[in-house]
Amino acid sequence: MNAIDAWVWWLVGAAALGIPLVVTAMPEFGMLAVGAVAAAVAAGLGFDAVLQVLVFVLVSVALIAVVRPIAARHSRQRPQLATGVDALRGKQAVVLERVDSAGGRVKLAGEIWSARALDTGRAYEVGQEVDVVDIEGATAIVI
Fold first, then answer.
1. How far apart are CA 23 and CA 85, in angstroms?
2. N or C: which end of the chain has fewer CB within 10 A?
3. Boundaries of each NfeD-like C-terminal domain copy (predicted)?
4. Whole-angstrom Cα distance, residue 40 to residue 43?
C-alpha cells in the first residue's frame, strides 16, 4: 500500500476549507486555505511535520491579522458610486426658465427639472449655468 505524501493531504485540507468559504462567505476560511497551501509547499520541499504545521499556523494567523482589518475597514466605507438623486448633487444645469426663490426650470442630466435658487435674493437667467446643491423631491436647489 502506497502512503500519500503530506503535501497532498495539505491540498485536500485547503480544498476542504474552500467549501465553507463558498457556503458561508466567511473570508477567514480562505485565509486558512492559503495557510494549508503554504504548508503543502513546505511539505513538498521536504520539511518535517512540525515545520509544516508551523507554516500553516503562521501564514493563516498573519493573513487573518493583516487582511481581516483591511476588509472590515473597506466594508464600512460608503460606496464611491453615487446613484439616483445623490448622483445629481454637484452637477451643473442650464437654466431654461428664470430661476429664483419661487421656482423655475433647468436642464439637468438631459432632463428638465423644476428648480429654485438656494439664495432667496438671487435669480438666474435663461442660458446661465448653475450648480445643483441639493434635490428636494422633484426640485433641484441651485446656486
1. 36
2. N
3. 85-142
4. 5
Boundaries of CATH 2.40.50.140 in the chain?
A: 84-142
CATH number of 84-142: 2.40.50.140
Q: How many CB atoms are closer than 10 A to CB 95?
A: 20
Enter the pTM of the model. Answer: 0.53
Task: Give the pLDDT confidence of 44-83 residue by residue, as tens digits.
Answer: 999 999 999 999 999 999 999 999 888 888 878 766 777 8
Q: Please list, in sequence order, all residues whose beta carbon lies within 8 angstroms of the beta carbon of residue 85, skipping any fewer than 6 positions away.
A: 135
Backbone angles phi, psi at 23, to 5 degrees: -70, -40
Q: Which three cell numbers stand for residue 58?
A: 503562521
**Which three cell numbers, joined as nine digits, stand for 31?**
485565509
What count of Cα atoms within 13 Å lies in the side-chain half-sphere of residue 21?
Answer: 14
The DSSP secondary structure of 78-103, one letter per residue, reads PPS---GGGGTTT-EEEEEEEEETTE
